[in-house]
DNA sequence: TCTACCAGACTTGTATGGTAGTATGGAAGT
DNA sequence: ACTTCCATACTACCATACAAGTCTGGTAGA
């Protein structure tokens, strides 16, 4: 069941750093250092270095030779493009879903909706966030577009640093939930036009978040 | 002008390995090894290792701990999804281009078309391939979607291993060129519907290549 | 006071040795 | 002939030492 019987030091460090960057626990612009991180994690520089390489490729850190490694500033252009890509791909996929969608995957969506209602009742924001992600992922899986979702997730690393604020403004969840419900109905009815419109509106919400974050933390941005 | 005054050993090794994998010079399934590669490139194992990490993240190689590193087999599902993503994003972008496109970037497209005619006359396939890539990239740049193009390029790594065969069947170029011409006209006229249709057809051509390659080299595929 | 310079404390880049897990082939036992 | 076991030769993983570039602060000289 466990693909990695012994999780490597590298993957541990990588996962932890990535999480901290996405959390804004390590804010944009923070100076990292191989040595410092290796001490913090209790490993040698090698696995830390290789984590930096991976994070650098994803654009989450910037490695300047002989100068230092820094958590990347949020690039508004990159964020907007990430939103654009996600919008195009999610709309295309949900149109596919309206043409044909497996029954058991539809069951999963319905279960997910029920869990969303429960989480909203409990005001469990963290759980709600996970369910939101799972909801979208499930649509991709129903259309055999697992890898496409994976690419979106990578792009979303940048988008998500901006979206963090919404987590605290939980009054938005009701709106998002009703959109999720509309999507499921549209897929069930095969109404691609409706699904497309709802998804487009659904994904346009994140634009405003960035403006708010930018105003509050101007030095986080490029 | 040179972003890297002294190209690092790592980036050299990475670029070379990547090129060889995309060339099929290193066919899918080939066993690599840190030691062997380090000897071949005349560097230590460290930069080779870090190249493996990068290539692994792109899905071009598969690193199995304590077992070995292998050039990834071509995953048909991944290839189809790459094609799907590219289609959706290119169609969305060319529709944007029809709404608004900078005059100087339009000049570049026209220049590119002229060079394409010259290269076809010379039967210069390599040049033609480069111009084709530049053509599409220019459309993205005109719409301020540089990063989106970069993501497509990464996905295309998988797609391109399948597209290699087309390079030798140069009789296709005439068809591709006329489609390019139609796209430029459509952008000039702001005819998003036409542009979308042409682009869709344009990008559907690569599907057949995979079938051919798969038939000839079944052991290259997953 | 201001400038030029240099020493030292950083940084990442590269090389190398040792460790642990894995595949393989041959020998010993059935 | 067939199976089991083990020595051996791999593999990637990690730790560590050294190399080379960069920044900083203090100092000597004008």
UniProtKB/TrEMBL annotation, chains A, B:
InterPro entries: GntR_C, TF_FadR/GntR_C, Tscrpt_reg_HTH_GntR, WH-like_DNA-bd_sf, WH_DNA-bd_sf. Residues 7-74 form the HTH gntR-type domain. It comes from the Bacteria. SMART domains: FCD, HTH_GNTR. CDD domains: WHTH_GntR (cd07377). It holds the Pfam family GntR. Keywords: DNA-binding, Transcription, Transcription regulation. This is GntR family transcriptional regulator. It comes from Cohnella lubricantis. The lineage of its organism: Bacteria, Bacillati, Bacillota, Bacilli, Bacillales.
